[in-house]
Specification:
This protein is α+β, with helices and mostly antiparallel strands. The chain has a single domain (2-123), classed as Aminopeptidase, CATH 3.40.630.30. The chain has five helices and four strands; from the N terminus they run ααβββαβαα. It has helices at residues 2-10, 17-28, 80-94, 109-117, 132-146; strands at residues 35-41, 44-56, 61-71, 99-102. Strand 3 (61-71), helix 3 (80-94) and strand 4 form a beta-alpha-beta unit. The radius of gyration is 18 Å and the shape is globular.
Length: 148
């Protein structure tokens, strides 16, 4: 439910049936591919975070990457997001991370204010993405160069 609401908010297609099955599989694998935490109010799920660890070669330490922090619209402004972000900060420190990173959509002014108010600093980096088909094309291209 929450991931579908996040997709609507971000104006993106949500996970299909196969992606939902992979999410469950990856969350329950040993070790899990990501960690998730759901916040409830009156027994209803109202917010979630999903995070995983990357690595900083310059720090020589892991980085907690916050993939998703989402609070249902009717529950925003109640401190739930701050509590979830604080949980991630605690988790980053507990696991020896040198930093925590995340991305925010450029049009999401409320999230930008929230993160900057929490102490987040905007970086001068561009994020890039390759879809699975683009990965295949890059791999095919790379294989052709390796075989010369």
């Amino acid at each position: 439910m929450l991931i579908g609401e996040l997709a609507l908010f971000e104006r993106l297609p949500g996970p299909d049936k196969e992606a939902k099955a992979r999410l469950v599989r990856d969350a329950l694998s040993n070790p899990p591919r990501f960690s998730a935490f759901v916040a409830y109010e009156n027994g209803l799920p109202v917010a979630h975070i999903i995070y995983f660890f990357t690595y900083s070669t310059f720090l020589g330490k892991p980085t907690l990457f916050l993939e998703d922090l989402f609070v249902l619209e009717g529950y925003r402004g109640k401190g739930i997001g701050k509590e979830l972000l604080g949980y991630c900060a605690d988790e980053a420190l507990r696991t020896g991370c040198g930093r925590m990173e995340w991305a925010v959509l450029t049009w999401n002014a409320d999230a930008i204010r929230f993160y900057e108010g929490f102490g987040g600093k905007r970086l001068d980096w561009y994020f890039y993405r390759m879809t699975e088909s683009e990965l295949r094309a890059a791999s095919d291209s790379s294989e052709k160069h390796r075989s010369r």
